[in-house]
UniProtKB/TrEMBL annotation:
<dbReference type="GO" id="GO:0016491">
    <property type="term" value="F:oxidoreductase activity"/>
</dbReference>
<keyword id="KW-0408">Iron</keyword>
<dbReference type="GO" id="GO:0046872">
    <property type="term" value="F:metal ion binding"/>
</dbReference>
<dbReference type="InterPro" id="IPR017896">
    <property type="entry name" value="4Fe4S_Fe-S-bd"/>
</dbReference>
<keyword id="KW-0560">Oxidoreductase</keyword>
<dbReference type="InterPro" id="IPR051460">
    <property type="entry name" value="HdrC_iron-sulfur_subunit"/>
</dbReference>
<dbReference type="InterPro" id="IPR004017">
    <property type="entry name" value="Cys_rich_dom"/>
</dbReference>
<keyword id="KW-0411">Iron-sulfur</keyword>
<dbReference type="Pfam" id="PF13183">
    <property type="entry name" value="Fer4_8"/>
</dbReference>
<keyword id="KW-0479">Metal-binding</keyword>
<dbReference type="InterPro" id="IPR009051">
    <property type="entry name" value="Helical_ferredxn"/>
</dbReference>
<dbReference type="Pfam" id="PF02754">
    <property type="entry name" value="CCG"/>
</dbReference>
<dbReference type="GO" id="GO:0005886">
    <property type="term" value="C:plasma membrane"/>
</dbReference>
<dbReference type="InterPro" id="IPR017900">
    <property type="entry name" value="4Fe4S_Fe_S_CS"/>
</dbReference>
<feature type="domain" description="4Fe-4S ferredoxin-type">
    <location>
        <begin position="72"/>
        <end position="101"/>
    </location>
</feature>
<dbReference type="GO" id="GO:0051539">
    <property type="term" value="F:4 iron, 4 sulfur cluster binding"/>
</dbReference>
<protein>
    <submittedName>
        <fullName>Fe-S oxidoreductase</fullName>
    </submittedName>
</protein>
């Protein structure tokens, strides 16, 4: 806990309550003894440190129940998780659900619960604490690097010149990274929707989705962002929310329903699935050949967490002139970028190494471009791709589709 700060915090959940809620999940993992999860964990692949394994994350709960550990002893260990979900897919408890074990592993939710308990107990990771405080101040994430002015005044700058309306039944939600860093992605998204005849508008005042704050343990802050966004959607009569970022998609399909229950009745549409539909129906002609050799990077929150891997491949195969070389591992063994779960904030060194390894996997396929559908993944992948003697360019799926549709 050398880099963990202890401070007085608001009253929250107790360790006893936490253990009571999570002991069954912990014993199901701890008693099985399987280590399938270790070798698919992107952090463990780099650190080879047993305390960073999903097995250890569950075993700690058992130790806490027996009084051998406290949250203060282990809080820092739980920084070492990207929330990719690979461990859950490889766990025998999940593989045999409904057959033998009848239990699905919930490691991602356990990690979030431990982080929330730490915050409730006044134990903060300094980088995460600063990040969430700045997000609360500016209503958008500060964006890694700090070179971009992040504020409500600039949250719609990416849409300059596109003449996009405010409000309507369909809202395009632009995540913080897209709004302030990789602005070419939301611009491509808006142009694609307009070209396909999809009517949509923007929010009156868009705040962060709150997902990163929730993942770092700041659940009450996350709920504040969620409440604002939901109220804004209702105020403009929105019924359908289109998102292009997988992290937003997780927030809106998992966190928000948990926060609001039946009150949350919005249709959440993932852009990549809508995109495949628009191309399939002939509403978005792809007529310009794109002379590139590409492979696809599966965003963990789409592939491993949501099982979405067919739609982006359908889109890539529809682009004329494109040579698409698929990766050898598509589902639970697919490669992580290291960009999720707050890891780049507290352990940028690990994110860099995980991304470097991912880019090297792409290089083995003799491609010149790595395509992703996650703006958060694209930053570290771009950095590592550019460092190679033979650079690999990283493009978002929407950017390359816009090229083929003549919208770039």
């Amino acid at each position: 806990m050398s880099s963990t700060e202890r401070a007085d915090g608001p009253a929250g959940g107790t360790e006893e309550e936490f253990v009571q809620e999570w002991r069954n999940a912990a014993y199901n993992c701890y008693s099985s003894g399987h280590k399938f999860c270790r070798e698919v964990c992107p952090v463990m692949q780099v650190t080879r440190n047993e305390v960073h394994t999903p097995t250890a994350f569950h075993a700690n709960v058992v130790a806490m129940e027996k009084g051998l550990l406290s949250i203060a002893d282990v809080a820092r260990d739980y920084v070492h998780c990207t929330g990719c979900g690979a461990c859950e897919l490889r766990c025998p408890n999940t593989l045999f659900t409904g057959d033998f074990y009848r239990f699905r592993t919930r490691t991602v939710q356990l990690v979030k619960a431990v982080r929330a308990l730490a915050v409730d107990q006044g134990i903060h990771q300094p980088g995460w604490q600063r990040w969430v405080e700045e997000t609360s101040r500016q209503k958008s994430e500060p964006v890694l690097g700090g070179e971009v002015p992040v504020s409500q005044e600039h949250v719609r700058d990416w849409a300059a010149g596109l003449d996009l309306p405010t409000g309507g039944e369909t809202i395009l939600f632009c995540d913080c990274e897209g709004a302030f860093h990789r602005t070419s992605v939301p611009r491509a998204a808006a142009k694609i929707l307009k070209a396909a005849g999809v009517e949509f508008g923007l929010m009156r005042e868009q705040w962060c989705c709150g997902g990163p704050a929730a993942e770092m343990g700041y659940v009450e802050r996350a709920k504040e962002f969620a409440r604002h966004n939901v109220d804004d959607w209702r105020a403009v009569g929105a019924k359908r929310i289109i998102v292009f970022d997988p992290h937003d998609y997780i927030s809106f399909t998992e966190d928000y329903p948990n926060y609001f229950g039946d009150e949350f009745d919005f249709e959440i549409v993932l852009f990549v699935e809508l995109l495949a539909e628009l191309i399939r129906e002939g509403r978005l002609p792809l007529t310009n050949p794109v002379d590139r050799v590409v492979t696809y990077h599966d965003a963990c929150r789409l592939n491993k967490r949501k099982g979405i891997h067919a739609a982006p491949r359908e889109v890539l195969r529809a682009i004329p002139g494109l040579t698409f070389k698929d990766v050898d591992h598509v589902t639970q063994w697919s490669y992580c970028s290291g960009a999720g779960g707050g890891l780049p904030i507290e352990r940028p060194d690990l994110t860099a190494e995980i991304s470097r390894r991912r880019v090297e996997r792409a290089a083995e396929l003799d491609v010149d471009t790595l395509v992703s559908a996650c703006v958060w993944s694209e930053r570290p992948l771009t950095e590592q791709g550019g460092k190679r003697a033979d650079p690999i360019e990283v493009l978002d799926l929407l950017e390359i589709v816009a090229l083929s549709a003549g919208l770039a």
